[in-house]
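seq/struct pair 1
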Amino acid sequence: MIEFLVVIILSIVEGLTEFLPISSTGHLILTENLLKEFIPNYTLSKSFMDTFMIVIQFGAIIAVVVCFWNDISPFTLDHKKFKSKMILWSKIIVGVIPAGVIGILGEEIISEFFMDNIYIIATTLIFYGIIFIIIDKKFKRNVIVSSLSEITYKLAFIIGIFQCLAMIPGTSRSGATIIGALLLGFSRPISAEFSFFLAIPTMAGATLLKLMKNGMTFNRHELLLIVTGTVVSFLVAYAVIKWFMGYIKSKDFTAFGIYRIILGIIIFLTLIF
């Protein structure tokens, strides 16, 4: 029972934070550390949790696919729509290339030096929180890309480079890509949409890589925990995406920047005292 409670809590955190620019990885690491401290009989192994933290992202991936099915699905008999969606997917793949290369080559180094480092999480939360506020104040009038069709392959690749910043916990994958898109002149809704689309192959690839590395050696109980976490993360992520897309149509990202700064400061204070 305790293990299912832990899994459900972590999956809710994943669903809430994966597509908001506040860092899902950072929140998951912080939440897991709190659970270990305050929940007795915490028996989930580190090897299982390392895999679980990645695999539950699959639920969030499905949420994106369901929410934006009409925008990204190539299954249509309309030749013009099929062509435009395949062009969009080719741009998404171009945008994923930087993270794919660095993820494969540097995954072990990143895990060794950055994962579970609370000081780094707190620092990146504050740093990118400040960046979000500055960008919203300084660059919000420079909109030159207001539709998906206006995204070029060059722009897609540059945003993909920004996505690589999220390999450091506390940065936020969606936050890094949205910041890159805003700097390049994307509107807020298009910045968020393209960030979500990039998440599909990026997170699917990360999940596959983790499973290949750790194997599929789950017992029935662990498999049930993973399925439960995936379903919960899907339901929560779906609701968050729907809310977020409505939110940014009339509001900016300043509130997320302030939240990041406050959370980072709180973490530093708890580490000091």
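seq/struct pair 2
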Amino acid sequence: MYPLWKEDVRVAFLILSQISIGIILALIAISLDKVGRGFFSFHAALALSLEAIALALDRSRMPAFAPYGASLLILTVLYQVRKLRWTGTLIRLTALLGAAALVWIAGPSTADALALVSSAWVLGAVLVAMNLGHWYLVIRGLPIDLLGVANRRLIQALVLRIACIAIGVILAREAWAAMWTAAGGPMWDKVLFLTVRVAFGLAAPLVLSWMVHECVKIKSNQSATGILYVSVVFILIGELSGLYFLLHRGVPL
């Protein structure tokens, strides 16, 4: 039972940290002047809370994530006290420290590092885009093009994720080949997870992003936000499936 629990903790730590770091990565593309301090303050606090839970689950990762956590804490406080002069630079530094932490725990594997960082950006981009859709209820008259920008960043994150997966499969081709030729485990298990990974985590979100784009063109914010809700669920399922391949099969998907 203990090894299973330990593996569950590892998955929980990774997914929470990736969402936290991904939120900060996604905020870089959002205009503070247009969307307002409250949006950034909320997401910085959310990212800090997620990382705090992650580190509480796995304290052994503290050395790698302490610089990111400290920078995120300072950023959150600055937003709360409305001291915004240095937040533009600090948010980029925080994102860099978060990405560096993921690269650190990936170890010497370039494929694993690409998988973790690109996954974080996708998770953060879809969550921030969905929350931005709700923000139109908070700030009346918010330009609809902001949601279009967030959606385009999500599409870019998905395209980069696919590229990183392709690179990862090439770099880890021996592990990929071994996964299909290994005698242990049923074949349907691998096929099922691979289908879920590709269909829910990559193909469906791209189609949904196109639908969001069409909704933004006709200024249908509520429809776009509803579609982004579905994207959040699909991408979360896809990235959890990707972690299954990374942690259990040694293939960065």
